[in-house]
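Changelog note: in this version the structure field was regenerated for every chain. One regenerated record is shown below for reference.
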Amino acid sequence: MPLVLLLVGGGTFLVFYSRCLPYLHFRHSIGILLGRYDDPDETGQIPHFQALTTALSGTLGLGNLAGVAVAITMGGPGAIFWMWVTAIVGVATKFYTCTLAIMFRGRDSRGEWQGGPMYVIREGLSRRWLPLAGLFAVTGMVGTLPVFQANQLVQITRDVFAIPLGWARADAHFGYDLLIGALLAAATLTIILGNIQRIGRVTAALVPGMVLFYLLLTLVILVQHAAQIPGALALIFSDAFTGHAVASGALGTVILMGVRRGAFSNEAGIGTEVMAHGAAKTSEPVREGLVAMLGPVIDTLLVCTCTALVILITDVWQGQATGVTLTAEAFEDALPGAGAYLLTLLVIFLSLSTIITFWYYGAKCFGFLIGAEYQHHYVWIYGVLIVVGSVVSLKTIIGLVDGMYAMMAIPTMTATLLLAPKVNAAARRYFNDYSAGRH
């Protein structure tokens, strides 16, 4: 519940404190995203578009497929409503946190400019707040481990391919999980033995195509089941305030699961996305905040809603499957003979893009703690943890990730709320200049 109060309560405060300003400028944010204001000579490492796709590659992944399924099985259909709430207030939260990412960039121990909550705290607040920066770096390094993505990728390939083809047994699959985890680690290391520019290019190529492919796939299913969509939406709204679909019948469980999975899905207020947007090539903080606020809309309001509707209209959510296997069952039910295979293909690319982005986040946290000149050693730790995540239970992983995300939100939201007046002042200046034609 403290996480609910911090993320939803803090985000709601920012909505009113900004006088809904971010919500009035989506058209301008799209113009920025399309490169109308890009300047390759400005400070930073990647363009606005690559910054957003890098951030989205960390959020557009298993949180949208497996995370939604977990929310429904553990919190009922009503949990989706509370995921929507985190996304709506998350628009304002991302505007503030990612504006601050540029406003308070700091140099690492190698003298390179970096962004992230730890640098926002170090550069924007007094030295007595430095322990909070350290707290984010430690919990961020653990919270961005690739364990959930690796686990769910192995699970869907095992359930869709390996067991039906006799490559693994349902009651003894450790060897298969270990093998796939090792192959995934090798593929990941091939990509991440580079830098943020390489990651930016990879995500810019993968993310838009994956999103369009997934939306097209779900659109086909939703058109086929159009008559059932109103009932699914009605179930989401009614269960959001009753909790009848949860085994315990507890409304608190519905809200908690919705906010937890919403936070894992769009990461607004968590702080990981701040590291990606902090690498953008811009000297105008508000501009990056406007780009970043598109994230929760694309990630949760659009993609997660599509996943939820497919699961609910196919009615498979009342069975025994959990996580990404439940989503695969829903797609197979809607598109017999092809749905599960198409989803598995998508999961492979989504998992890989998230894993390589999470390495960047973890490496930056690692470098902040022990020195940027040593952060390249993190890559080998990361590779081992991909394999570990492949064989650990889903319940253990969800507990670990939820705990770390809650701890990451504390320094991120604390710094954001304390520095919010500076964002408002910068926004007033920016939009006054924009109205006068100076942008």
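Spot check on this record: The beta strands are 106-107, 113-114. The longest strand covers residues 106-107.
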